[in-house]
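User: I'll paste a sequence; please echo it back and then give the predicted structure.

Assistant: Echoing your sequence first, then the prediction.
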Amino acid sequence: MAVLEKDTKTLWLALEDRVKRVDERVSKLEHSTEGADIAVAHVSSRIDDLERERNSLREDLTNSKETMASIKFERVHRSPGEQTRGKARSIIIKFAFLKDKESVRREWKQLTGTNYNVWEQFPPEVVAKRRQLLPKMKEARSNGKRSWISYDTLYVDGRPVRD
């Protein structure tokens, strides 16, 4: 009887040890599963965000194409002169309608940081006047005032400055 009791205890201890190891493994698997569930939820959320962004970009592209198709140009040509190696030649555009020019002008800031730029072309007299006004504009800005040049007029805090 003592041998049977001893064998039963040994078997019982071995069984408890095995159950303990199985419980630890199950606990680790549950923890891994919870981590995987969290990761799946995060990835699913990110996929939803990316799909919304893609749809928004598609819509913007479609609207841009429609807008571009509606813009009328009076004349479009490359700038005169020789092409500089490694540098694209400028394109000069004359819009048929002022509203088209203004809609393009409002979008210029979106080109910041890209390889594209847009400039407004002025007559030589206006360019000379703007060069004279530029230091005054910078000085006003350094004094904490809002200033800008529109055509050939300097504005400081919304008021035109006369020479």
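Helices lie at 2-70, 98-106, 124-142. The chain has three domains: 1-70, 73-120, 122-163.
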